[in-house]
Amino acid sequence: MAEEKSMSKVIFTVFVIILLAFLFFHFYKVNAIEKQYKSTVKTVNTQLEQANKEIALLKSEIEVLRYKLEIASIVNEVAKNNFGIAQEKVDALVSKLEAEKHKNINKIKQVQEELHNLFIKKDNNKIIEALGVLQKTIEE
């Protein structure tokens, strides 16, 4: 009997030691996985921030290209001597910029007034120069 009890104690002790080893290994792996997860999340967040910055930059570039396209359309109308249509397009562009609260809206309105005077005179070259000034002012 005593031998059976000591054998049971040895088996129980070995079982407890194996169980503790598995438990220790489990916590070690969980800790390692948690560290890896945190590192991955940090990396992904950094990449996401960078991507968002790039997206914002691309959006602003797209807006500038749209304005350039609108101004090119106005130049096209001036070249066709369609001064009324060109003036309407300038007014629409300035209204759009005003609605978007463009930072140089005061300068843009000054150029718009100058363009109104030039449309009356129907001077193609000066109108195209003023449209170039308008484009530069928008891009600033």
Structure commentary:
The chain is an all-alpha fold and 140 residues long. The chain is built from four helices and no strands. The radius of gyration is 36 Å and the shape is rod-shaped. The termini are far apart. 13% of the residues are buried.
Estimated structural class: mainly alpha
Percent of residues in beta strands = under 5%
Q: Span between N and C termini?
A: 96 Å
Shape: rod-shaped
Overall average residue pLDDT: 87
Order of helices and strands: HHHH
Biggest β-sheet description: none
Q: What key attributes describe this structure?
A:
mainly alpha, 91% helix, rod-shaped
Task: Write a brief structural summary.
Helix content is 91%, strand content 0%. It is built from four helices and no strands.
SSE layout and pairing:
Blueprint lengths: L1 H78 L3 H17 L5 H17 L2 H16 L1
Helix pairs in contact: 1-2, 1-4, 2-3, 3-4
